[in-house]
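User: Batch of two.

Assistant: Item 1 of 2:
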Amino acid sequence: MLYSIPWYVVLFQSIPEMFLLIILGFKLFNIDVDFKKSLLVSSLISIIVYIVRRFTSIYGLHTVILIFCSLIFIWIILKMNIAYSFICIVTSLLINGLLQNIITPIILNLFYTTPQDLIKNPWLNIFFYIPNGLIMLCFYLFTVKREVHLFDLKMYENNAKNLFKDKSIFVLFIVLIQSIFIMLINQIFLLSQQTRIVGIEYTTINIIISVFTILVLFSIKGLGDDIKDKVEMSFLKTHLEQMEDLFKALRVQNHEHKRHIQTIQAMVYLDEIASAKEYIDGLSDGYSCTDDIIYVENMALTALINGKRKVAEINNIDFKFSINCSLDGLKIDSWDLCSILGNLLDNAFEAVRKEKDHRLVNLDINCFEENYIIKVSNNGVKISKDEMDKLFEPGYTTKESVGRGYGLFLIKNLLEKYKGSIEVYSTDKTVFKIILPKGEGNRND
């Protein structure tokens, strides 16, 4: 049965517990929240739960109201989407419930108390929560220090609709709902015990539920890894498509060269020297430089640049590029390099499309001391200061901004992977400046 609690339990247990649930839950999914606003949300939720517990005796109702109010207040105060807020809060509740299932029976036996004593002496609620709260706090500090998270939910931030494009997310919702329900049933059974020593049936059920809860958490981690693999596979697919386009262009060019050489060879064998000269002059005059394959030191970059040259030609964009140093020390996977530059060039092309006169996009790669300096610039729509602050937020997009969707967010994550950085300037031109440290060897074969 649900029992009421005095105000000091709300102050010293409910509010800290809710606060830890919020910051840990979001941190596990790589979402940072404002501490002050989280404390405000925690206080409001705890007050509502306090009122609910005074006027109802149905155990579990307060948890349902806690989840519902959490989603509403987080949406209003923290400005976060309800969909992934639900995932974060319920996952954190599962961890908290798991700790309670393990710790509470142990403390009851150690101090020769029963669940009924929690009702008679409310201070015991605070005392019993201390080890649980300390473990939750240590868990949070560990995730911050080690940058450990179940999966990167941040990529869905500001665009919760993308959560439902993957059917596995529906499975996650169902599993979380089932798990929290089972956890509540287990706690109801514990509170119904009149003695400090619980029976073998409860102990067995408690162990099974705890094991399954841990498996659920590992499943969430596996789901996050699966989503990450899908993103990387998408990058790799784009890279392979670019390479395939390059090989097709090379085959076409090779076929044309063979045909011209065979024609000239036949003219020479027939002693038609004048005709051969005329044929060669005609080829020279009519040969379009845009049909040439531009070769650079890196094969993946060759494919990317030639592909973007075609896109620029179709859209009447003056695409210029220069590579002024050796790429041997550029230690970055080919598909990641193409993902970074491909996204930046796509954004630059989009930014200049509204220019009526001269549409200019530049790609420059230089070396300076121990770093590679890569710049992608355009003379298109400028980025305002307000847009600049939000440019790398996941899901952020405007019709006129070069920062669209998740491209820049993914670029920033890829650069962090290689200990690089990105800077943006928007004055006469908009410039994206990438700094990548040199490494031994080359991963771009």
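Item 2 of 2:
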Amino acid sequence: MPLPAALAEPLARRCEGKQGDDLLVTTASGAVLRLRNWRRVVFDPAVRAAGLSDVTPHDLRHTAASLAVASGANVKSVQRMLGHASAAMTLDVYSGLFDDDLAALAERMDAAARAATEDRVGAVWARAPSDRSRTSKGAGQDGGPRGDRTHNPRIKSPTGELPGGTA
């Protein structure tokens, strides 16, 4: 699993002098760290010291997911990071975090549409209205191997002109 660079140095320091099967995080006496003891001895006092209350370790998991989504992670990345069985499970829990992506997606689609219009991307597939009479397709049979599978004539024409010469 990828590790944020901000954690690499502190973890490297903690690993110094350790063998491959040594515990990395232990109690002060070097024993196995149990969640119940860690919460009572480390986590809860840290939460209070930060001026917070009612924060759980699981809340940190949600925070990590929120930060990942805000950083641009896609749902599959968040799924793998959290160990969810499926992306559907991740979306069931965190779908609200991805809703903000819709506005950004719309902006990127608008930019791509403007670029396509300016660059005439798709002109290879699109046929001018006068070329339609030369195809073997009949009326209502526009979709198919030519590549113009949409029923929107503005998308089919590189100029945005409707059949019959109207805009």
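DSSP finds seven helices and no strands in the chain.
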